[in-house]
Design a protein that fits this description.
168 residues; mainly alpha; two-stranded antiparallel ribbon; flat
Length: 168
Amino acid sequence: MEWMILPLKRYAEFSGRSRRKEYWMWILFSILANIVLSIFDAVLGLGGSATTTTSTAPGAVAAAGNLSGGLLSGIFSLAVLVPNLSVSVRRLHDTDRSGWWILLPLVPLVLAFAAVFAGDRSAGASALIFAGVALLGFFISGLLLLVWYCTEGTRGPNRFGDDPKGDL
C-alpha cells in the first residue's frame, strides 16, 4: 500500500527519479480509486453510470458494459492531476529522459485539432486525412511513453539524481 500512495507524499515533486514499482502501483491505485468512485457516483446519482446492457438479435447476443465517471471521480481526477504528472516526469527521469517528453502526445493532438477546426472548410477531406495522421502520431507517441515507463531505469546516478533502487 505504501507504494500506491508514495506519489501523494511527493505531490508536486518534479525533480528526482521514480522506480517502475512506484509508477505502476500509483497507476493501479488511481484506476481502482476511479472505478470505486464512478460506482459511488452512479449509485448516488452524481452523473456517473454503471450499467450493463444486453440486447438480443437473431442469432447474436451482444453485451456491453458502461462505467463513466461523475462528480466524485471527476474531483478525484483533478486532485491527482499534479501527482500523475510528477510521477510520470520522475519515471522519465529514471530512464535518463527529460520530463518534457511527457508533452510529446500533445504535439500531434494540437495539429489534429488545428487541421479540423482552423483549416480551410473547402479542403475538408485533406484536413480530415491530416487529422487522422496526427491522431495516429498521438497514439504512437503515447505508446512510446508507455514503453519508456516500462523500461528499467538507468543503474546508478544519472543527471536527474541517485538511483531510486539504491544499492540493490
